């Protein structure tokens, strides 16, 4: 196969994820070249994400590179994908997943108390965390993971919320911080949180096969179920939505979801997955 041009955002996290994918491709004998794209979401660091276009903003400009042929594959955080991909494009592989949980991050010697200010702009995180810790106050925060940690260090917030996956993949020195992971039952993660998704043109059959080949099979199954629920609900991150699938030994799986504060759970065999997703959606989804 010819050398692959790999499109990605230029943030440290995006590049760390892209390096994971490129290493797997090189191991499979394929050469890669990285092409970094600055998206609207990267340029506008002022406005709340939900105001400048929600989930799609980090993805659309990268998809354009695939459609125009400037790039062959694109690496995404699967949780940032809009429910509808650009026509002709598919997520063909999910090479790896990290810890799916969210975490509260505080400076080492600090405690959370009534009125503590938590930096997050995510309606899902606000809804879920205030359910378990109702006395906290939330204030919007923007910027990538390292910028957010600097804002915490400078005392702009008492705590911030980060995905464990981001902390792990950046391999940051967290010496001066305490990390308090929130279980997936306490705070249902965003659908596909912690999963790397690799996108390509649907018609590139050989490439689709290659990306399947470098996928982690369990991550791929988790991706399919969470993505199925997510796309069937047609929601984006401007509404509080959490989706999480746990694959248990013995072929059973647990589906957890939350929409606008309403929660539901299903447990069943994975082969009944379609029906489980449908009934979960039925219970949660406000069709009005
Ligand atoms: N919304 C930004 C974003 N997209 C993916 C991650 C982390 C990695 C992941 O969840 O896959 C983050 C940072 C965060 O939410 O803390």
Automatic annotation (TrEMBL):
Alphabetical GO biological process terms: heme biosynthetic process
Needed cofactors: dipyrromethane
Signal peptide (residue range): none
Molecular function terms, GO-annotated: hydroxymethylbilane synthase activity
InterPro entries assigned: HemC (IPR000860), Porphobilin_deaminase_N (IPR022417), Porphobilinogen_deaminase_C_sf (IPR036803)
Enzyme class, spelled out: transferase
Transmembrane segments: none
Porphobilinogen deaminase N-terminal domain residues: 4-207
Keywords: Porphyrin biosynthesis, Transferase
Catalyses which reaction(s): 4 porphobilinogen + H2O = hydroxymethylbilane + 4 NH4(+)
Domain of life according to the entry: Bacteria
GO CC, one annotated term: cytoplasm
EC number: 2.5.1.61
Subunit structure: Monomer.
Stated family: Belongs to the HMBS family.
Stated role: Tetrapolymerization of the monopyrrole PBG into the hydroxymethylbilane pre-uroporphyrinogen in several discrete steps.
Protein name: Hydroxymethylbilane synthase
Organism: Acidaminococcus fermentans (strain ATCC 25085 / DSM 20731 / CCUG 9996 / CIP 106432 / VR4)
